[in-house]
Design goal:
The chain is mainly alpha-helical. It is built from three helices and no strands.
Amino acid sequence: MTPEFVISFAQEAIKTTILVSMPMLGLGLAVGMIIAIFQAVTQIHEMTLTFVPKILVVLLALLFFASWMLELLMRFTATTIDQIPFYIR
């Protein structure tokens, strides 16, 4: 294992992690911003108002993007397992 290999493997793992988490985090952020604007306009400052819509949107995003996320994770895992002989050298 060379330092270049370790760095490239870590970069690929981080890239995969970011790609898998991005749909849920992005939609959660968008809904949070919309609710924050709504609270600022109506002057309703209820802390629990933001949690339920964000949880629902994140769960819906998980359901919608689950197949794509699973395919991406399976591809990363299969590539990692296929290259085990090269890791030993």
